[in-house]
């Protein structure tokens, strides 16, 4: 069975996902077969495996860092919030159903055998497992039935590295307070502390590190710097949403919907010179972009109603009337049509009018479409005519089917790589475009074609503004991450913790 180490944090967004990815990369570079694991993930960013199963993107990112194919074994439970008190529950890549928080809290204990089975299968196939926890292990109201932090560590005998976020302040209180709230047997599992996201002169921090070790009796195994590594984010805590609102030669605006999902679709545009990618939450932030992206969402109908009540829908339709390019992906694509109907109550129930920017209708069904695809853009007109014939690859995750009307043309011709069948996807008319495919711009040819076409329509030469091969770019980022962690973490001590494990 594999050796195991677990990364837990003092809070959400302490940097667990990135540190776990970095350790995966280091172990991979050192010649080990390594795999990530997170028993339960709550996120709206998800991914479809080659088998057509759904899992969280954080473990996909960590699998990439480990140099292996993502598998649902790495994330057996995925919770996708549908509202403030409920989530869609996905187990072993399949939708189990929607549950409110109280019902799921009572139900999740029955999933422990599935969690253990997934972990054991991974452990049989690999030398090392890097586990990521969730939130904080010191949530005293949730500890009794924990299956993702100390409960999991005890189940699989995992030594724990506890991570605190110094960037948000109070890191010593975070770490000491978390340790103090743990039971004695849980404290004994914590074999090392990490201070994360540090900026400045470490010598000023050193006295605090010594006091922290004296107070807790646990070694600090590293002070990791604040890293600007461009890899995919787990959820809506991403710093991308609060990034620069600077407008460059070409300005792309992404609507930050309340239930935005799979916003990683737009990451490739962040790296193209002369292009600004802004996330906007209010009409006042929209300004006059060259293109507006309507992203994926976990609840298309409710987010469309939010757009309607906030004035964002009117602003987008006004921009479209003035010639601005509108591009919807997944839920954003569904919004562009004339009606959205939900006869089975999959989302909000009933029927509401869409934005009526494209003549099509969407009906939500209980069955979720989950598949990987590849293909090409069809012959496309309008301001994005340069997309014609460009290759694409990605995946579909959506409830509902959309039917085009009045001779509306498809945007892409794709092959379902799971079922092996070809089909048309999406639609376009004049400057309005839409597709169900996530990752549609991950291929550098597609991203550059969009930017070049948009620039030509504006009279701006973007032909020299090269896009990047996003997959190859991410490989360089994982190597940079590993290099930084090797420099700032005591890897000799971490390997020793890995080898010694824990006695239960």
Automatic annotation (TrEMBL):
<keyword id="KW-0315">Glutamine amidotransferase</keyword>
<dbReference type="GO" id="GO:0009236">
    <property type="term" value="P:cobalamin biosynthetic process"/>
</dbReference>
<dbReference type="Pfam" id="PF07685">
    <property type="entry name" value="GATase_3"/>
</dbReference>
<dbReference type="GO" id="GO:0003824">
    <property type="term" value="F:catalytic activity"/>
</dbReference>
<dbReference type="InterPro" id="IPR002586">
    <property type="entry name" value="CobQ/CobB/MinD/ParA_Nub-bd_dom"/>
</dbReference>
<dbReference type="InterPro" id="IPR004459">
    <property type="entry name" value="CobQ_synth"/>
</dbReference>
<dbReference type="InterPro" id="IPR011698">
    <property type="entry name" value="GATase_3"/>
</dbReference>
<keyword id="KW-0169">Cobalamin biosynthesis</keyword>
<feature type="active site" description="Nucleophile">
    <location>
        <position position="330"/>
    </location>
</feature>
<dbReference type="InterPro" id="IPR047045">
    <property type="entry name" value="CobQ_N"/>
</dbReference>
<protein>
    <recommendedName>
        <fullName>Cobyric acid synthase</fullName>
    </recommendedName>
</protein>
<comment type="similarity">
    <text>Belongs to the CobB/CobQ family. CobQ subfamily.</text>
</comment>
<comment type="pathway">
    <text>Cofactor biosynthesis; adenosylcobalamin biosynthesis.</text>
</comment>
<feature type="domain" description="CobB/CobQ-like glutamine amidotransferase">
    <location>
        <begin position="252"/>
        <end position="445"/>
    </location>
</feature>
<dbReference type="InterPro" id="IPR027417">
    <property type="entry name" value="P-loop_NTPase"/>
</dbReference>
<comment type="function">
    <text>Catalyzes amidations at positions B, D, E, and G on adenosylcobyrinic A,C-diamide. NH(2) groups are provided by glutamine, and one molecule of ATP is hydrogenolyzed for each amidation.</text>
</comment>
<dbReference type="InterPro" id="IPR029062">
    <property type="entry name" value="Class_I_gatase-like"/>
</dbReference>
<dbReference type="GO" id="GO:0015420">
    <property type="term" value="F:ABC-type vitamin B12 transporter activity"/>
</dbReference>
<dbReference type="Pfam" id="PF01656">
    <property type="entry name" value="CbiA"/>
</dbReference>
<dbReference type="InterPro" id="IPR033949">
    <property type="entry name" value="CobQ_GATase1"/>
</dbReference>
<feature type="active site">
    <location>
        <position position="438"/>
    </location>
</feature>
<feature type="domain" description="CobQ/CobB/MinD/ParA nucleotide binding">
    <location>
        <begin position="5"/>
        <end position="226"/>
    </location>
</feature>
